Amino acid sequence: MHYLAHRSRMTVCLIGVVLLTWLSGCYRSWSPDDIEMNDDSETDASGDADSDVDGDSDSDGDGDGDGDGDGDSDADSDADTDADSDGDTDDDETDPLVVTGDWLVRVFADENNLYFIEKRRILKTSWMGQPVTEWHSERLLRCADFNGNILTIADEATMKTLDTDLNLIAENQLLEPCHSCALVSGERFVCAPPNTWERVFYTFDAQSGELLARSDSYTYRGSSFRGQIGVDAIVAVSNLIPSDFHYYRIDPQTNVVRYVNESPYHGGVGATMAFGYIGSPAHSLVTQGGQILKIEGEDCENGAYPSGCFVKNGNLGTLPTDSAVYLAFSDSDQGEIFSLVSTVSYPYGCDAAPCILQLVDLESNDIIEQMEFRVDDEFEYFYLIARPGSGGVLVISSGRSIHSISSNHKPNYSAVYVPSIG
Prior knowledge:
The protein is mostly beta strands. 5% of the residues lie in helices and 37% in strands.
């Protein structure tokens, strides 16, 4: 009798174990490693761990905006994104997974999706990090830009244009490798090589790939650059000491990039790529020191002295202490701007002490909301992207600048979507 009872209990236990094992297969707990965006570690001709991308003055800890939070459907995980029964992403999720990867070139966003451009891959995800599609490159990607309709990229030898589903639209051979690039009106693609001596800017038709124009050569007139939002112009930063902002316009008729002038302060205002644009079209920018500069002031013309480009027009003024520094800004077109503040001046980062993520009113310069933001790794470079119409922001932390031509930095990065800082 005792034997039969013992055997029955064993049978029930075995059935229970089998049932639990089957049920556990229906659920899977995702971790950042599940969706890690690492590419294979390959060496380029220089023998480093992979390709470099755009260059800038790394000595000042620069950055501009891009990044994402990632995850998957898991109703029981605070870090994962929930999925409704119809398969749609639940945008009410408050703790998306952190996305990790290597060698970030740029990140772009539209209302619904994010586009992570890495050294050999483009990954399109939802804002909550759910993968949508991806595209792979045979060559190391160097630079990229996005205008909401098309994505144009460049490697060492070619430029390519993709649609938002990452289908190839056009491509052409480059005359020189692209180091920085920008899309301007008329879907024209401007790019330039990394050298700053006798540097030539090339303009392509992004829809056909046709080379439209090449500029005169310029020496020591900036290195890394970004397109000025809503304006046929680019803002470049020199890698000299002291550094300066440099302004170029793209002729709407000839498509030629022409140099205009530089900032008039020559070290009086720190110029780095860690600036954010203000306005759409952008009329001003805010520097890593918090100074607000009007891009085109009076006499912002070629040969004007003193230059009327990048003139002082205020200060953001939201640093909590004298030792605090701005690490990154989002671009702003709604009268508000996100900033990320390091509470320690050196080394920059959000690991030893938490950073402060701020939402600032640009009319009053008052802080609307703020929160602590911390990462677990020793990242030095940070980038922000505001999500249109949502109050959320994407925060990217990187071991290397996306504008650096040096490989002497950690290539890994981490990105997270913060739905609200209120």
